[in-house]
Amino acid sequence: MTHFVSAEEERRVRANDREYNEKFQYAVRQFPSLPVPKSHSLSLKVRGCSIFKPTNGNIVKVFICFFFFCLLLIQSNCIMTSKYNIVTFLPVNLFEQFQEVANTYFLFLLILQLIPQISSLSWFTTIVPLALVLSITAVKDATDDYVSSFFFLRNTYLILLQNEKWMNVRVGDIIKLENNQFVAADLLLLSSSEPHGLCYIETAELDGETNMKVRQSVSVTSELGDQNNLASFDGEVVCEPPNNKLDRFCGTLYWRDKKYNLTNQNMLLRGCVLRNTEACYGLVIFAGPDTKLMQNSGRTKFKRTSIDRLMNTLVLWIFGFLVCMGVILAVGNAVWEREVGSLFQSYLPWDPPVDNFLFSAFLSFWSYVIILNTVVPISLYVSVEVIRLGHSYFINWDQQMFCSQCNTAAEARTTTLNEELGQVEYIFSDKTGTLTQNIMSFNKCSINGQTYGDRHLSRLDFTPFNPLADQDFCFYDDTLLESVKVGDSHTHEFFRLLSLCHTVMRELVYKAQSPDEGALVTAARNFGFVFRSRTPGTITTTEMGRPVTYILLAILDFNNIRKRMSVIVRNPEGRIRLYCKGADTVLLERLHPCNQELMNITSDHLNEYAADGLRTLALAYRDVSEDEWETWSESHRCADKATNCRDDRLAAAYEEIEQDMMLLGATAIEDKLQEGVPETIAVLSLANIKIWVLTGDKQETAVNIGYSCKMLTDDMTEVFIISGHTVQSVRQELRSGHRSGQLHVRLSGVSVSLHLGIHTDKEHSGQAHALEADMETEFVSTACACKAVICCRVTPLQKAQVVELIKKHKKAVTLAIGDGANDVSMIKSAHIGVGISGQEGIQAVLASDYSFAQFRFLQRLLLVHGRWSYLRMCRFLCYFFYKNFAFTMVHFWFGFFCGFSAQTVYDQYFITLYNIVYTSLPVLAMGIFDQDVPDKRSLEYPKLYEPGQLNLLFNKREFFICIAQGIYTSVVLFFVPFAVLSDATQSTGVPLADYQTFAVTTATALVIVVSVQIALDTGFWTVINHVFVWGSLGSYFTIMFALHSQTLFRIFPNQFHFVGSAQSTLLQPVVWLTIALATAICIVPVLAFRFLKVDLKPHASLTSWASNSSRCQRGVKKFFFDIFVGLRVSLQIKLMWG
């Protein structure tokens, strides 16, 4: 019988018993019921793993079942990361595309065109563009889906030792992993080839950390390495339901009438890699979508640019405008049919079912909706996606953003945010690993009130003293080495703590969980306290050349709340001692009162180290009596076995014993700035981009880094520090800081020398009041009045809260950049997330929209690629709307001269090809390749970035200007040929005032005008631009002559009626004079307006456009520019820009 529950409250898994496990919904939903012959046994290597292995007789049946379960998406451990498969692609993709309003609208038009009484155009005038847009989008979606899913397929479908794929693994199976294999399900570690049931894993794919971690099996199962024992293992696990907490697991193993607590240390999670371990065995607890990796891969928040949101609004306005035009023309049709059309009923009656002028107007409305549909840009969205894709490739191909040291190129991980890079106003940056290198070196220390580490001294040579010393280790104070040599007890205890209190593994090839820890253990190694190896119960060191083994009694883990780590060991003499290291803010308050004087001295040293920009830790110890250890050990054991509130109980137990410690000293580790950080921050500041640093470091360290990277400078008038512990104190500090900021603004006026800094300290919950709802407005107003902001002691959640505050109150584009897993929430919260592929793994990169190796590349990403992308997109949109209105509005004017009969000006083939052949490629080339100034000028003049921040190049005002220009062009294109050709005659005296002559003249003038216009709009000409612009113009004449040729008439006599009309029309000089006149009337005002705007009211964008034009004009653009701009303006601009 199968049990179905609405929500899984706990999971029960019995080893080697699929029949039992299939009673539960989580087992049934993961895999279809396939008939498994009981005669099938397991191979010798994986006995006890009830995995069905098909034979030749039923292989066809298995493949059929496999095919259908893929279609139904019912799988065991198989993860379908792709959105589509072969069967579902077409319906799902079409459903998604028709959720776009424009696509649904054109489908509706296509249906209308199938009604003869309404449509005056053939159905293919709509279906050809619509099919092209849908096809291009479908190909792009399929490609993106295939590329994104390929990585998972490569890592998911691994072969078991029994030639079974990982996708067939089910809950309750026992499987074997070998060295360097991916863990493809969440496993309970049962046994290992290593002593004591240990195994080593790499979790970079899971949490972004590149270091190795140790996992250990439950002691009672660690000896089950024998395959017969594994086959007979029938333990049952009761544990928490699937969740996304990577660092937590709570469960109980029931076996042989006993129960054993299970923690995260007993688990191997999907996504990890087995390292330095020959083999291990594990019981599958979570499989497929229930694994913690997949639980953490929830839907990513879809980010849309401000231009996307504006485009959607504008398209709705265009819909409304289209309806208004249809209503006007329908009313005109009603009036005309009533007043004039009724006079022709005797020989020109209404077509059935029209029987009155009102019904005729109703049909006319829908007819004009079809004819004027091109005012709504059907190809707009797909063109935008193509342009963004091109911009993304430019970022990926940029050699100047390639880091040769780590062989890492910049990567645009999304194609939807490129132009948003040109509008960033706020940057939120992590410090460690983002501004700094995250390569730690032991620099200074304080031991028993004495500070060591004078850089002015010579570098120490440790080789004569210690043959195990690391040759790359640098230290410059020989007094510390002398203290070690003479046997100072405090110094020895200091380095003994560093050699014991850590999670480093693997003897002299240290694998640390953080660069800080590796630096400290390496320092202890060089000063004679060498960590050699560890087991679950011992730590072996070499102290001053003498091997020493300590019994490891307990490890009190580090986390972001505790901010400290402790170990409890028993030395060879039998004495029990606790060693602790952690943040000074939490460790100093747990010292014995007798340490007060030493604590004051050490605190001064810590402040000195922080002022030098060093990362600090405090070290302490305490002796533990046997009775105290026995009592605490029992309480710790009870807390560890607790099924409810286990974490809280463990924290309370840790807190109990980490009291009354004796201070040993402090360490100071240097983390140098990355190359080019100060220069990058200086340039970004000139671009009016505000940079906030959000770090977990202490105040002094953060402020010093601020000065080092030129965020804070000596000429800043005042640095405000918000460090209150209560709501009232924080509010008072915010108000006083804001008043002081306003005072300086008022006194300084518009002086560019105004600089103001703010520093926020939010270590405890009481110090986080500035982020609370009733104070967030004051915090934002104060912080945004400052030149630079540094927030220290912030948690990952607080980083995201700061970003959300600015998004909420400033309505500005934000960018977050970081390198570690603790930066993921901030990266996801910002409009744009940038990941640094550094020392802390790839978690930040996986969550980001863009990634590269060093912070300095951010300058080029924003000021070059971002600014160009914004410029190109704005010019593309302006031209796109202009050309569509210029094309469509001619039909509107023609309606007043054709009795509002829904007759078109152009022939249906021109209407079909205008947007997809004649004008599509030139605007795409401009949108992909255009530049106003070279990349070097963009970096030299950061002020060129400001138009994007102010949204000057494309907004509602610019949209209406483009629409007005398009309407003006349509008026000229209709009325100039209409006026000229009305009375014009051929040389033979035959009148030219016929429909086809007018249509060819108007269409030709339109194509020439929009081609000249894009030539004027293009600021950077490439071979592709020339080929597309002039090639499109040439293709128009080629196709037009072909459509009016006798060859096509003979083949399709019912489709091509006007044989030779294009040739005869364009042979008339008056036609070309008309086209030239219409082109001049359309283009000359544009040139005059641009000349006056550049000359009389220049701003950065227009001046840079003119500057580049004065250097790069070619062909038609050079001719017109020289006429209307003249030598004076060219000389002025050249002097301005050099």
Automatic annotation (TrEMBL):
GO terms for cellular component: plasma membrane; trans-Golgi network. It comes from Sparus aurata. Coiled coil: none annotated. The active site is at 430 (4-aspartylphosphate intermediate). One of its GO terms (molecular function) is ATP hydrolysis activity. Its cofactor is Mg(2+). It is found in: Endomembrane system; Membrane. Gene3D superfamilies: Calcium-transporting ATPase, cytoplasmic domain N, Calcium-transporting ATPase, cytoplasmic transduction domain A, HAD superfamily/HAD-like. It is an enzyme of class 7 (translocase). Mg(2+) binds at residues 430, 432, 819, 823. Residues 76-127 form the P-type ATPase N-terminal domain. This is Phospholipid-transporting ATPase. Keywords: ATP-binding, Lipid transport, Magnesium, Membrane, Metal-binding, Nucleotide-binding, Translocase, Transmembrane, Transmembrane helix, Transport. The chain crosses the membrane at residues 62-86, 106-134, 314-336, 356-382, 876-897, 909-929, 959-980, 995-1016, 1028-1049, 1069-1092. The gene is atp8b2. Residues 845-1098 form the P-type ATPase C-terminal domain. The keyword Magnesium applies. Belongs to the cation transport ATPase (P-type) (TC 3.A.3) family. Type IV subfamily. It comes from the Eukaryota. It catalyses: ATP + H2O + phospholipidSide 1 = ADP + phosphate + phospholipidSide 2. Pfam families: Cation_ATPase (PF13246), PhoLip_ATPase_C (PF16212), PhoLip_ATPase_N (PF16209). Its EC number is 7.6.2.1.
